[in-house]
Design a protein that fits this description.
Layout (H helix, E strand, L loop, with lengths): L20 H12 L3 H12 L3 H28 L6 H9 L1 H34 L4 H19 L3 H28 L15 H15 L16 H30 L2 H5 L4 H10 L1 H35 L17 H14 L5 H29 L14 H20 L1 H12 L1 H9 L5
Helix pairs in contact: 1-7, 1-9, 1-12, 2-8, 3-8, 3-9, 3-14, 3-15, 4-5, 4-14, 5-6, 5-12, 5-13, 5-14, 5-16, 6-12, 6-13, 7-9, 7-12, 8-14, 8-15, 9-11, 11-12, 12-13, 14-15, 14-16, 15-16
Length: about 450
């Protein structure tokens, strides 16, 4: 069976085609901008004391995101069904790889991203209302369950919430950046302590940056719900990725405008500290509220998009059939609920930094394979219609795949146990596939 004849949910009439270009950009930007840009600059400063190197790492993360977006923009209109990366991986490499991606998404990658966002939500909520760590965890779990319930009411409810929150968070970040750059406060001239060896330090910093960009691909899961997938899906990915890079660079320039590297190294809340240093406590509360809203928007985007993958797998005979059933609002309710409950459980599994390290390592294995699929399918299926083609082919896919290999290697070097946990969570899916789904007709 060739890739073109693989059945997917691209023809399933049960999903509502109600997403526009604006909705797609809101999913990209709103899902990606969660806690990362407000939390990880402190972690990056501890790895790299030089502002110049910090900016280069953020630029590298932005370029990789744009390169990945351009690559998926070619694949999306070719396979316009629900499922995104799962569909592309299955078409390029076969059923086992497609299944392992979907399994990894549910067991760690997507749910782990939700858990990391929720932990950040609890951390910042405690700045508005002081609370003990167990209460922070309870608040984190409640945030996940709230977004799960919201999306059970249908695509329209999820997308309207996403659009509104994205507008608020982008406007809020723009205001924060403007205020910081307008401040007369200048950071003290200090000399930060030496960091780890350069290669590993830069690698750890890049992992943190890539966590901040995590979720750029999630809009691909909803491609079956675009009104005009050939036109709006590629544009959503491209403009969303470019907007993210511009927002993140602006935010980091603003932080360094008022904080020294040593001050950034000493905090896990760089955005709040920057505003406090420039304008005092009351302004800090406003920024904290912005961050809390931002994280809720990212959680909503993750809750909305992930179940579409498990739905597609179930409809293709590669996952439990209950995940392919829709409720009255035409939402895969079982997939949505299981995703939410497991993500809530993962909030108890580790710290913010441990969680995003697990996620980035495992996710980038599949991102590399997905972008490589552009090249694989150019050879295997040269006659399939491609409404959009990656510019500068094959340079952009090759650079992305090479970067994915480097990132996974650096992740192993920086955290072998984290890498082992990530690989193990994926490989657990092999016996499940072999015993339950290997002989299914798909």
């Amino acid at each position: 069976m060739n890739a073109a004849s693989i059945p997917t949910t691209s023809t399933a009439p049960s999903l509502v085609r109600d997403l526009t270009f604006r909705d797609g950009v809101a999913i990209v930007v709103g899902t990606v901008i969660g806690s990362g840009v407000f939390l990880v600059p402190g972690s990056i400063a501890r790895q790299i004391p030089s502002m110049g190197l910090v900016m280069l790492v953020w630029i590298a993360g932005g370029l990789l995101t744009v390169f990945g977006a351009l690559s998926l923009a070619e694949l999306g209109p070719m396979y316009p069904g629900a499922g995104g990366l799962y569909v592309y991986l299955r078409a390029a490499y076969g059923r086992p790889v497609g299944f392992l991606y979907g399994w990894g998404l549910l067991s760690l990658i997507h749910t782990g991203s939700m858990a990391t966002l929720a932990v950040g939500f609890g951390l910042y909520a405690s700045q508005l209302v002081p609370m003990a760590l167990p209460v922070q965890k309870l608040v984190a779990i409640s945030a996940i369950l709230l977004m799960t319930v919201l999306n059970a009411f249908g695509l329209r409810a999820g997308k309207l919430a996403q659009n509104a929150v994205t507008i608020c968070k982008v406007g809020g970040i723009g205001l924060m950046v403007t205020l910081l750059l307008s401040s007369h406060r200048r950071p003290p001239m200090d000399v930060p302590a030496p960091g780890p060896p350069a290669a590993l330090a830069i690698g750890a910093a890049l992992v943190a940056v890539l966590w901040a960009y995590e979720g750029w691909h999630a809009v691909s899961f909803t491609s079956a719900e675009f009104r005009n997938v050939s036109r709006d899906f590629p544009r959503s990915l491209w403009w969303g990725a470019v907007a993210l890079a511009a927002i993140y660079l602006s935010a980091n320039v603003a932080y360094y405008h008022v904080l020294s590297p040593a001050e950034l190294q000493g905090t896990d809340r760089p955005a709040a500290l920057a505003v406090q240093a420039a304008y005092g406590g009351p302004a800090t509360a406003l920024v904290t509220a912005l961050i809390v809203v931002s994280i809720l928007g990212a959680l909503n985007g993750m809750a909305l998009t992930g179940p579409r993958v498990y739905f597609a797998m179930a409809r293709d005979g590669l996952f439990f059939s209950s995940f392919g059933k829709l409720n009255g609002a035409r939402v895969p309710l079982v997939a949505l609920v299981v995703q939410g409950v497991w993500a809530a459980c993962l909030t108890l599994a580790g710290t913010f930094q441990e969680l995003f390290t697990y996620v980035v390592f495992t996710a980038w294995i599949f991102y590399g394979l997905s972008v490589l699929a552009v090249i694989v399918l150019r050879f295997r299926e040269p006659d399939l219609p491609r409404p959009f083609k990656v510019p500068a082919y094959p340079l952009i896919p090759i650079l992305f795949v090479a970067a994915a290999l480097l990132i996974t290697g650096l992740s192993i070097a920086n955290g072998p146990l984290h890498a082992l946990y990530g690989i193990g969570s994926i490989l657990i899916g092999l016996p499940i596939y072999w015993l339950r789904f290997r002989t299914e007709v798909g």
